[in-house]
Amino acid sequence: MRTLVFSAALIVAGTGLAAQQVDPALSLITSEPPKVDREVVELGKMLFFDARLSGDGSTACVDCHDPDYGWSDGSELARGYPGTKHWRNSQSIVNVGYVGGGLHWDAGLASLNDQVIDAMGAGFVSNIDTVLAEERLRQIPDYVSRFKAIWGETPNMPRIAEAIATFEMSLISENSPYDQYMAGQRSALSQDALRGLELFNGKANCSSCHNGKLMSDMQFHNVSVPPNPSLAEDPLRQVTFRYLMRNLDVEPEIYDALDRDPGRYLSTKDPQDLGKFRTPPLRYLKYTAPYMHNGVFYTLEEVVEFYNVGGTQDVFQTKSPLLQPLNLSRQEKQALVAFLESMSGSEIKVKQPELPDYEALAFPAASLNLAALEQAPEPAPTSNAEPEVTVPASSGLSMTLRDTGSPYATAETPAVADNPSRIKDIGGTLYVTVEEGDTLGDLARVIYGDPLQYRRLYEANRDNLRNPNDVRKGMLLRIP
User: Fold this and answer.
1) Are 121 and 465 in contact (CB under 8 A)?
2) DSSP characters for 423-437?
3) Which of 206, 238, 248, 410 could form a disulfide with 449 if both were Cys (CB 3.0 to 4.6 A apart)?
4) Vertex 435: Cα angle to 429 and 441 (nearest 5)
């Protein structure tokens, strides 16, 4: 049985072309757009274009999500951070604010905020340390004033991610001929597109997977897309491929046997998910070539022909049974392409923002009493053991922390004092509980009074924390 894209049925108008019953609920014109704050959008736009949020200052979000290429990058496989190459196609971010259930081709990231943080920390994307990213923005007075005006905070990673994600959610394509038709404008679709719509829901059976507002069931299917030859030919793409496999705990005997993307398996480790990818939305499709998770098809005509012949070899034995030869005529394939193109409205263009400059900050050297420091008494001899600092009794805690000797370290830990339940004693070892938005720098400030001590936390927890930017709510990190 075929699943129809519309809740309303098809209406056949006499012996002529089948007329489709409109359904305003399926038009983005009549949908409630994601709620965004315009000041946050403006800040996020600046950060989206700012390459200083990458390790060597060369790679901005816009480099992989370029408005001139449908907010993708126009390449089969995405570019990587200098010295690396990616091995998946860069998805368009248009209408991403409507997408739920995870981001990326395998829905491996929970939210847009998570995606921003993950991309910034990934060695093959932006490759920048969280604290370095924060400090770069704190060296730019215009950014500092904007963060303080919006949130009352200096630049920090959770707010950086929120700003960029909010800008991305503002990119909405809602004026396509398909949207206009679904909103009740009968003349919005051409005769070819109307015929294609009938095929889409009928003989071509596209609506089995492409349905709803975004023309995606948000489910995962293996449609047997052939591998991109570049993965077999380019050693740098293979390096990135294996790097991610290892980071996601895929066994070597599995990834060494792969000649293509394992898809949803990366997130679930379920063999039944090998080769499966989430059904991509079809909005804005006209501008986002090349197509598929690995960019192997450059035109919609190629995509339609791929489905017309029923796909290719099922190497993972997980191919969707929905994929069957369609036996479409040349005219039918042309009509189907016409309908697919009707789901794209006008191009979304934005003016590249003018980015603020770094400024050297004045050091308060004049306020230092160097003479007093020179006359300070010699410190008492200490043993080789690290000195201990006891948290004041007024804090309500009975724990002892090691003093690192940092000029920023203090014995006061107000964040812990406000929430002592974050510290747990398990078998005589102290752990801190990660809360929403925490970075290692935040936790080091809580524990030691010095965000620069985040490296101690990282080194003490490397067995369970491979990426210093991958700190997640609910984690227990050992306090060294």
Assistant:
1) no
2) EEEETTEEEEE--TT
3) 410
4) 75
